[in-house]
Sequence to fold (261 residues):
Amino acid sequence: MDEPGLFALAILSVVQGIAEWLPVSSEGMSMFLMLNVLKLDPASAFTYAVFLHTGTMLAVLVRFRGEFAEMLLALYGDGDVRLLKIVVVASLFTAFTALPLMLVVKGFRSGELVNLLIGVMLILTGLILRLPGKGYRDLEELGLKEAALLGLAQGFAILPGISRSGTTISFLLLRKMKEEHALRLSFIISVPAVMGATLIEGLPGGVPATSAVLTVAITFAVGYATMDLLLRFARKVNFSAFCISLGVLAVATTLMVMIYV
Fold:
């Protein structure tokens, strides 16, 4: 198995920079490409998928720099303490679901089984996206128990095929939060989650430092440039049907390969 070359990493960076803002599981998309096109083993594909989130995480930090500055000030008693508490609680509870599931995903040795998992989880994401209605609550009305449940829900997105943004935004809309507040909080709480996963997984083995820096730079540039446009686009498209259709296709194709090859 060869490590992805610079061109392959650039393509994966663009995919991540676009898919992160859509409720389609950027991790699932990138892992599917790495397993079936680049022929990586599941563990390596998972590590690369986590690493690719670094660039979009930086894009979120820059885009919501005001909110993060407020939370830093809150540490010294002069900022948005409420938002800080929500993010801390959500992040802690994300670990409860994410860490055990991370071990499960990394334990897979068969690419076909991971393909099946991605397909099934995409179908589940599509069903989740059918749930929410309209919200009326402000961010300040979110309780810490709800923040804990939000974190638990976010942790399931470590499974390839489960959309992190789709799951967390759907949860918040089900709690009747206004859409703009749900979007904002969903992306803010992604930063500690991505930081934690990246620290645990580390850099993919065999990738030169220059390639790693370029990968992060491309993902950041594409992600930051497309964020607002794609978030508006996501509100107008039926991604539930898209995820279900893509999931069914992935499951059917994988089963055919397992049976006839």
